[in-house]
Amino acid sequence: MSCALYIFPTKALAQDQLRTIVEMKKAFHTDINVSIYDGDTPREDRLWIRDNARLLITNPDMLHVSVLPCHSQFQRILSNLRYIVIDEAHSYKGVFGCHTALILRRLKRICSNIYGCHPTFTFCTATSANPREHVMELAKLDNVGLIQNDGSPCGSKYFLLWNPPLHMKKEGGSQGSSVTRRSSPIVEVSYLFSEMVQHGLRCIAFCKTRKLCELVLSYTREILEVTGKELVDSICVYRAGYIAEDRRKIEADLFEGKLCGVAATNALELGIDVGHIDATLHLGFPGSVASLWQQAGRSGRRAKQSLAIYVAFEGPLDQYFMKSPDKLFGKPIEHCQVDSHNPKVLGQHIACAAYEHPICLQYDENHFGSTLDSIVTTLKDKGFLVNNPSGPFSSTMWNYIGPEKNPSQTVSIRAIEHDKYKVIDKLNNRLLEEIEESKAFFQVYEGAIYMHQGVNYLVEEFDLSSRTAFCRKVDVKYYTKTRDYTDINVLGGDFAYLPACKTNHLKTTAQANSCKVSTKWFGFHRICKSSSKILDTVELRLPPYSYDSEAVWIRIPRSAKLAVEERKLEFRGGSHAASHTLLNILPLHMMCGASDLGTECVNPHETRGMPERILLYDKHPGGIGLATQVKKLFGELLLAALELVSACSCASASGCPNCIQSLTCSEYNEVLDKEAAILILKGVIEHDRSYFEVKEASDRS
Length: 701
Fold this sequence. Notes:
This protein is an alpha/beta fold. The chain folds into four domains: 3-139, P-loop containing nucleotide triphosphate hydrolases (Rossmann fold), CATH 3.40.50.300; 183-313, 3-Layer(aba) Sandwich (Rossmann fold); 343-409, Arc Repressor Mutant, subunit A (Orthogonal Bundle), CATH 1.10.10; 487-520 and 545-689, Gyrase A, domain 2. Helices cover 35% and strands 23% of the residues. It has 20 helices and 27 strands. The chain has a six-stranded parallel sheet with strand order 6-13-12-9-11-10, with helices on both faces. Strands 22, 23, 24, 25, 26 and 27 form a six-stranded antiparallel sheet that branches. Strand 23 (511-528) and strand 24 (534-539) form a beta hairpin.
């Protein structure tokens, strides 16, 4: 009767593992019922699965919205639950990790309090500096045994750093001056991709964006048209956005060896077994050392030799690693961090837990921590919980009475957008793709060249009311790129200085306010594929995409700006660099991931005035309380940032990833000034110090 849960972060991984388990069942001559239970499971199959499955393959999302709120329907499984296996544990970090940690606490609570079972946890992870500590916090476990002897078959791997060659380029027409530029890394990757395929090497070309995937496929097919026409259809793109049917077909073709290669986003970074891959290409640094090794680990999985080639962009970060490869290969894998004590997220999950089974302060503190009492009081005041008037422990029992029928339906554990734009091929009325609202205007608008599996489509009609783009196939020698900017509008932050933040930390004039994050699109370029030259520029009128969040910020005093300008340094580059430095040191002071907070990144072509401030904002719509946490630490963060950037021995004005470069900069670290950042940080710290000295003297008098 014993049962097990097998938990994956993605549906694609679940499908992949089901195939393997079915093969294993045949080999073991066993008849255990194994079923996937996720959002794609047909409604008519769910009752049978609940009644018969012994090994249930699912994901955190399904535990959150289906299994836990309706746990009585899973009574047979939960009463006999012996094992919980969590694969790709390193993917549970940042805010997604925080939500998953609290879902696992809810699961353990239901298992022990209602069904009397205490399952054993098994975690599988890769590329993590702290696997044991991470999973102990993830599932609130007192002890975990670590097995780290890698017994998987693994051949030698050649790792190449490929810097596109330099060449002379005229700027400003035939009379313009000659400058030395590197050739396009997109073209370089495409030539390498075509070489791999022609030599019979199965290859994945990893690209950071969907658009780059499509461009690499398009260029590679153009090369193969000349050098190996029979291979043109043996490569394709694998990325998010494609309809499920198309993705499943690509996965099957790749697994069965029908495809020689794919251009992919990080959708193929996790452990999907795509059969034997000989080589990986990496267009630009993927954002973390862990991701780079995860991607490179896709090749050479069966004791054969393999190859990984990292092709650099011209930006400072990639060039830093090209000049100092030891900094890349010697750089430690990042730690996985989970903050299961975030008050805002904890409150959401305690409301969900109370809906599943009344909260008992006496026992449930073991699951949710010492702040349970205060969070329950807050939820009571908001009308979500009520004290249970009867029964044992009545004074400490709390029932859910909130406005939502099922509170878990309103708590999004990932940044999943429900509003999407459809892309329709006018010729046959076929749905090509559904694009999330926040990404749609980067890809589709009237006049846009939309790319799907390397094929160019011209968007001829764009209906905003129905969220539909109608396009037709075209043969053009250019692609389009939007002109856009993102503003952070701090609400209620237009004052000089507010009262100091009263905490046990350094006093600071930094403020945490609500903010609106808005992206505006005002035009697009048509860019020649062969030369990368801008052919023309077209105006756009599209509605902005906005969401409410929270920001923490501090003004840069006038004296600091004057000090920067007197040295003839770049003020915008300095404030940008100072903000990056705060982002870089933040994980040393509080639990957050690289994708949780952002800053105002400077575009080299920006002509508008920029606010004179250092600002960090919560990248999660609605905010999850990170800005308030950062505000309490802001004084210490400024000192730590100054110490970090002053002590860094790099000689470049644009710094390095150890000081002012950010691995997640949306403008590729193009406008940075290390010396200006030091002056700005010193100026802000000194201004805060003198401000409070004057204020305290005034208070005494």
